[in-house]
Amino acid sequence: MTARFWDRAIILADMNAFFAAIEQQDNPEYRGRPVAITNGLRGTCIITCSYEARRFGIRTGTRLPKALVLCPDLVRLPARPHRYAEVSSRIMAALAAEITPDIEIYSVDEAYLDVTRCQRLHGDPETIARQVKQVIFSTSGLLCSVGVSGDMTTAKFAAKQQKPDGLTVIPPWQAAARLRDVPVTELCGIARGIGGFLEQHGVRTCGDMKKLPISVLGRRFGNPGRRIWHMCQGSDPTRLAREVPAPKSLGHGQVLPPATRARELLLTRLLHMSTKVGARMRRHDLEASRFFIGLRADLGWLGGKPRLPLPTADGGAIFTLCRRVLDTCWDGEGLHQVQVTALDPRPTSQQLELFAPAGDRRHALNSAADRVNERFGSLALAPARLLGRSEMPDVIAPAWKPTGHRRTV
């Protein structure tokens, strides 16, 4: 591999079976054994599993009963999202401090690093990639796979080529040739819908994209379509997003036991989500007046987007909307998921509302509860209905970040 410096160098660090690897590290008796992580002890869908389990054909999304048929000795463990977030935060901080501050934390177990400006300090991109692996291992004791290329999409593709503990380098001047025979749907961001559109136009592999004018994708998908055209050429122009933009929405959802019809259980779950949304908004000095209250049934989402007369960050007020939606939109059919989302979060007003209810104590009560929960743990102080929430484990949001409004489980 040549040691020449690159005009642009992107590294993707992808942790290997991150949740399962942490459990094996924290519990030496599970090392070398097939381990599967589920969302709580009652969860039946596998979130992730160790590579020992994957050898039996178990994958993310496999149902636990099927997994136990494939591997009777499977070790099933409930997820510990706060532990995973803590380890991830340490890894990301170490990468920013020891490699480069030009980092985009893509998810709890993935990060992009733009090392273009670090080459004179740390060496060529392959050398830096090896340093990335060493920093992660010395910080956490965990292994990762690393992809290196001249753009974000090709770097992510490269990281998938050797797992676990892999390192794949695709120099930018070789990217187009390396991707030529790769199906377009193997690239991040090209799902079945876009893949079907491309197939209708004779594009199945990245090399086929040269036959399709970029204007066709531009007319159909706008700028994202133009980006896809470049992605398939190994020249994705997207830059790392170091800053997290202000939230356009902010919400929490929870998967229910299949075909849940118990009204009291639904109310408890909706109160749980309302309480979390309210606390999260208060933590970041936000409030909202319009919310999405969703109930997912067999044929799709039920619910609505009710509005409060005044913006709020009070979980009780949000729960009132949830009750209203449940009463008007649900006829007793089996539900599989609930969702509560603030649709228009905005900075909290510093001016008192003229028509706010007189003697309203909610703000003082919420502030006191927030201080207690910050010291003793999430929902240590909570509405009485949530006393049975032990069966409702927290999860890490897909867009998790170690700081700001996306630092949430």
Radius of gyration: 24 Å
Shape label:
globular
Structural class, by secondary structure, is: alpha+beta
Q: First CA to last CA: what distance? A: 42 Å
- Quaternary state of the chains: single chain
What is the CATH C level class of one domain, in words?
A: Alpha Beta
Counted beta strands: 14
Please describe what this structure looks like.
- The structure is a single chain.
- Among the domains are: 18-80, MutS, DNA mismatch repair protein, domain I (3-Layer(aba) Sandwich); 180-232, DNA polymerase, domain 1, CATH 1.10.150; 250-348 and 358-402, DNA polymerase, Y-family, little finger domain (Dna Ligase, domain 1, 2-Layer Sandwich).
- The chain has helices at 18-26, 51-54, 64-70, 81-98, 119-122, 125-140, 152-159, 175-179, 192-200, 214-221, 223-232, 263-283, 315-329, 362-376, and strands spanning 10-15, 35-38, 46-49, 75-78, 103-107, 110-114, 144-149, 167-169, 250-260, 286-297, 300-304, 307-312, 335-342, 346-347.
- The model has no long low-confidence stretch (mean pLDDT 90).
- α4 (81-98) crosses α6.
- Strands 9, 10, 11, 12, 13 and 14 form a 6-stranded antiparallel β-sheet that branches. Strands 5-6-1-7-8 form a 5-stranded mixed β-sheet. The protein has a 3-stranded mixed β-sheet with strand order 3-2-4.
- By secondary structure, it is α+β, with helices and mostly antiparallel strands.
- β2 and β3 form a beta hairpin.
- The two termini are 42 Å apart.
